[in-house]
Amino acid sequence: MEIPEQIELGCGKKKPEGFYGVDISETEVVDQTENLDQPGWDLPSDHFHVIRAVDLFEHLSNPTQFMEEVWRIAKPEAKIVIRGPHISSDNWHDPTHKRLLGSRTFEHYTPESRFEFYSDCSFKVNDFEIQFQWQPTPIKQIGHYVANRMTYSYETTALRNILPATNIRFELTPIKK
């Protein structure tokens, strides 16, 4: 079987049409079982032009190891989408969650980071969006506006407790020389 160039990491029981599904558990949509929390994935290097990891990153014990594997399997200019619970979310109650994500989570993997020496992989953070519950109410619309336009003030003050978000979604591109 030829592996498509679009992959859903941690697909669980659903994946987008045309994507190659990888998960630790076997389900009807999983194309390959893989422990994504361990290095050495049995996936080709420089192969994928779209990589998605939705509701996976918060479960990882070693996020740097994961990012190094994502960098390895990504084509240059690949679109990488990672979504997980925002630091203001009440999703911390899930016992399988090891971390929440904030707007600066992936700064550690950028060339500008003062922590760039932790890993050889590097990414450009193209965009992020702090997301609120799916039902558009006026208060959630205000929260969305404030969180995405005054992110630092939102994440570092009581605003995040008053108007808690649900998730944060990132778009990254690998930097390969």
From TrEMBL:
This is Methyltransferase domain-containing protein. The keyword Methyltransferase applies. The lineage of its organism: Archaea, Methanobacteriati, Methanobacteriota, Stenosarchaea group, Halobacteria. SUPFAM superfamilies: S-adenosyl-L-methionine-dependent methyltransferases. It comes from the Archaea. The keyword Repressor does not apply. GO terms for biological process: methylation. GO terms for molecular function: methyltransferase activity. Keywords: Methyltransferase, Transferase.
